[in-house]
Amino acid sequence: MALAFDEFGRPFIILREQDQKTRLRGIDAQKANIAAGKAVARILRSSLGPKGMDKMLQGPDGDVTITNDGATILEQMDVDNQIAKLMVELSRSQDYEIGDGTTGVVVMAGALLEQAERQLDRGIHPIRIAEGYEMASRVAVEHLERISQKFEFDISNYEPLVQTCMTTLSSKIVNRCKRSLAEIAVKAVLAVADLERKDVNLDLIKIEGKVGGNLEDTELIYGILVDKDMSHPQMPKQIEDAHIAILTCPFEPPKPKTKHKVDIDTVEKFETLRKQEQQYFDEMVQKCKDVGATLVICQWGFDDEANHLLMHRNLPAVRWVGGVELELIAIATGGRIVPRFQELTAEKLGKAGMVREKSFGTTKERMLYIEHCANSKAVTIFIRGGNKMMIEETKRSIHDALCVARNLIRNKSIVYGGGAAEIACSLAVDAAADKYPGVEQYAIRAFAEALDSVPMALAENSGLQPIETLSAVKSQQLKVREYPFYGIDCNDVGTNDMREQNVFETLIGKQQQILLATQVVKMILKIDDVISNSEY
Amino acid sequence: MPIDKIFKDDASEEKGERARMASFIGAMAVADLVKSTLGPKGMDKILQSTGRGHSVTVTNDGATILKSLHIDNPAAKVLVDISKVQDDEVGDGTTSVVVLAGELLREAEKLVTSKIHPMTIIAGYRMAAECARDALLKRVMDNKENAEKFRSDLMKIAMTTLCSKILSQDKEHFAEMAVDAIFRLKGSTNLESIQIIKKPGGSLRDSFLDEGFILDKKIGIGQPKRIENAKILVANTAMDTDKVKIYGARVRVDSMTKVAEIEGAEKEKMKDKVNKILAHGINCFVNRQLIYNFPEELFADAGVLAIEHADFEGIERLGLVTGGEIASTFDNPESVKLGHCKLIEEIMIGEDKLIHFSGVAMGQACSIVLRGASHHVLDEAERSLHDALCVLSQTVNDSRVLLGGGWPEMVMAKEVDELARKTAGKKSHAIEAFSRALVAIPTTIADNAGLDSAELVAQLRAEHHNEGCNAGIDVISGAVGDMEERGIYEAFKVKQAVLLSATEAAEMILRVDEIITCAPRRREDRM
Description:
The complex is a heterodimer of chains A (536) and B (527). Chain A is an alpha/beta fold.
């Protein structure tokens, strides 16, 4: 602990209760931080690529998650170290922004830190390293832009999109049926995409999972799936050409917000109140019937009496439907959410071609399908799988695939995957390094080397000889400088040509990876003092 | 510079080989636990709950055993999970799926120690599973067209399922019951309309299937005990005091006379309600909620049978079988659909009185009354019967059947073995391992029956070398025999689910190379 003394020999109090805090300064601080960052990256390194392994995470309540999605692993790891938390943030921001490449970004950052450590040992000042990295990342991003290719597809020919989604899915446990899942993801995105504005609102895609059945039974429903059943067991299970009243008011007598009391003191009042009540229920049901609704979907519950009246009048109803689902139903069926019975009109009803209840397996699980909606802008992906973990993992994988498809619709540029882009960047950065005078040159070279670590990890995970493979691919790449499509042959297909293997990644995803990783590493390098509360 | 710890205090991290070891061992331990219950001669387990009363369950149902275990090993939890799903989805084969997954992992462990990468093993397993499924598909039998044959298939499936359970003594009796019940459903898989009533006393053989509907309730005092051509109103309404539902209403009186008046009005209201109900022209009224003494008296006066507090399922089922709607308002007697049945009477089973509805309008529902020496026997009998019913109802939908007694495993193993020979590369080791894991199931069945498994399986393998062979292990006689002749059948859907989920689970566990355990959430000491 550094101490300062005044001229009388008394110590200055710089930090309160400083002897209870541990403090790391200067090069020690940087080394410690780098070590922590590397430790996190090391955990994820083996999950990279199509042959990456999974992690089993046991949560604080004993629940088990099995995944190889970087963001999920880090999120659930429950880390305590500050720098490790930064890495967690890093992968999370990649997840929010792009949705894919969450493992890659952490591995990349880990590699950059490792290289930085070597430069520090050489005596290069951390700020110079940081600046060198900054320059290098700019070079790399520009180079990516240059080598990126336009990716052609349209509504009728979405095959290229499917191929890209398959690349994403191939690294997940679901790769057994990646083809069908990729198709589902692409169709879902295209269904909700606004190709004019190049925008996709992923909120319109609902992902539902139910344990049981096979992964192959996963389906895309052009409509909404609600995990509810009809409020009365004897209501019809199938309604064609449904006119749906979407209500947010309960089938109950009104509850005014202001406090009030209705005093009953005579028999007459008791009687009138009773009549009033019956009439009220009757009116509510009649109102729905009058506007021509054939199905009522309500956010709240019904009273037994109301329930029977609905059943009696042959008006099927669903109760306790969640707010989000209600909104989706409204969007899909083109109806309006009605907060009061008085405001119910025929125009506000949603329309759907088919509403049916479907039951699964031997248990009493039932779900409500709302299909053939007037406005098919909302879709549902319904995932089936052997167990809960499988479904959770499939959900995450589908989410990644959706994000990739969305990114491609937003921006049609792609780069080749399988480490091809990294190798190309590494070559470009290495070449650019010589042009910079000064100490930064070393940092730039280090950056180039760090870029190599991604294909290296890919090769390692696929059981190939990492150094041998990388140098072979690199020399192939050098021959065709402008069209870098040579990558690591993870699936043992026999060719390094990523065009043939159909392995793409989105340009923005890759750029984001490099930028984010550089930023975090810069931040970590600039820390030269760590003050933390020691164990009390 | 030592690395600072990244995780919180109590969290632990296991990597690489150690992680794999931990999950293999956990999964195999669970598989070994249920292994001895597999097959017709499998043993039972006693489970004692930690809850109050330390209630005891005796079972050999895999899913039930695993459900009650408290497991800490994450890999073992995966296995528990698949058996639960198997139970939900097809109802039977819950032990087989865990045993198969355990065997697959045991084989995988050997491969891993001989330095084959887990990914290679997974690739091999996938190919093998695909091939095994195709092999089964090639050999399935489908008798959907031939109703008589189909029924006998179902009988055989039910008997095969039941023979590994406590009901094996009377399996024919129960299989007959289960098949009859399933045929009444006419293809729907809704097992809710089959009601199982457990009454201790008598012996298992005294159990019977009743075509009507039995409600475990007593008839009110002073009401008719027997009604012919009953018209039933099924209701869900409050028959105590009708609350005023308008928010904020309350009764406020200032003198005793007023109280009496209001009370009178309330009584009047109830009387009104009863009258309205009576206006439906019914002679039986079943309510989900309580019926208070006053309305009960009124019903008794009118000669109507009133049954109170039938639980929710009872009501739904009654509505279903009698064809009546569940009513909550009674203003329009002419348009309410009433339920009908030929005869309502009180019957005695053992010492209990039950209400029996026979000759109901809808033929779908039926009741199975189980009799047995003790609650444990009855619980286990119910589980076994439930398994059989589940399998049958699934088979009605997917009528493909296979032979049993280790026959499907041997067929699959043979095909998979052939595939292994054709496949080049390291994968073939994994494919071979898959076939070994498949053979482990007949081996376990034979072992559990105290037979010479090595001898029997070798014989079986030799038999299966011939094309189109029907040989399997007949545990009863303790020899290899023709399964078709002995009538040992299994449903294709069950076998397929076992195969696929077991492979999926094994794959999932194999892919793991690191286990991170978070610090357990601290609980306040309630001591």
